[in-house]
Amino acid sequence: MVAPTILPGRAYQGTDRVSDLLFGWDARYLQLNAYTGQAGTFARSSVGGLVQGTGLEHDLDTDNQLRLVGPAPDQVPRWEWVQNASGVWVPSLRLEDARTNMFTRSEDFSQGVWGKTRAAVSSNATIAPDGTVTADKLTEDATASSAHFISRPMDGLTDNTVSTVSVFCHAAERTWVKVSIITKTASNYGAWFNLATGAIGTVEANATASIEDYGGGWYRCIVNTDVLTGGARTQGLVILADADNSISYTGDGASGIYVWGIQGEEDQPFPSTYIPTAASTVARAAESLSWPFNAVPQPMTVYHRFVDRGVAGAPSSPMFMRIGSTNLSPAFFIYGAAGSVTFTHDNGVSAKYSVGTVALADGDVVELLGKLNADGSVKGEVYVDGVLVDSPAASGAATLQSAWVGTNLYMGSYGSGQFTYESHAALKIARGVRTMDYMRGAF
To answer: Quick check: pTM over 0.85?
Structure first.
């Protein structure tokens, strides 16, 4: 089977909509330049983390999933296909902030840097999520009434701050695994994951958990844990389990699970895309994307479509899009928070807001519609999987100025901060105050 292909070509519905566009970009063209002519400027001064697929058409595995690909070379954008809540494959561009995988030998648990307690590792035992035969098998020994695990120190974590451990796991004879962090109080806090069903089991105090399905029986198991304060050495653990909420049992010397691609992220409350490592830690630089935007403040409508990756509200005020350089004003921008999206017009004298309420889940296709009216008031609308979920009231008026502060248009950040971590699919700006149906058709 192959992923459905969306062929390049403008799906314009009438020349009036073409002439109304001040800006138009769509990920399905697999290029950074806008189809309205503006040249895109992308930056990432390092390799990029792995994403699902790249390009317009891809072979799927037996579970209708795309393989992980990457890492992308320096300055090369990461195009990926993501499967939305309806099971449809959607082309997009992944943008993230700077992150580091603090675990070396992330795909080779046989190395001495990985502690093995009442367990053994068999190297290159099966096919990993990236299609290579690099996944290891973690096997329990026959010790009675004990835990069987691999572990690794996580030094340098900040007191009372959440850090993250994620690892790709696949069921073998065992179908449960616990992923956890030993905190500075020497407490083992984490969560259990059912590798047969993809369900999350017990989640312990001071921890949160999530799971991502990568097809072929592979799941990325993610734990975010507050490391608290104390003198104990913090560690990341992958522990074999015989059931939910159970890690102490008598092993049979043969049973286990497959593991691959572990990542430790210091002082980070949620994971980024996987960054492979060998003998050294690997840092991924922040990614930014912008275009020139010379249109002056005027009645206009902004449309932004993205696929949520489960962390829309986790960063500090993630910036979905912004007209105007840096963090000054006049500017128009749309940013998020936990459970909300804010549409803003700041004319340099006062800022006006239209705040929408939304609860997002990983895989949701989100459409944001921001309307800037002639009196400078702003009105937002939020759609999830094609359905209107909130239409907040318009803001008060704020006089339109003669120019924005600078001539840049940003997506996914404002160049150096407020990253969204989403998979971006489209961004359009049209003259006048338009409806969602109009903006969907205006490209």
So the answer is: yes
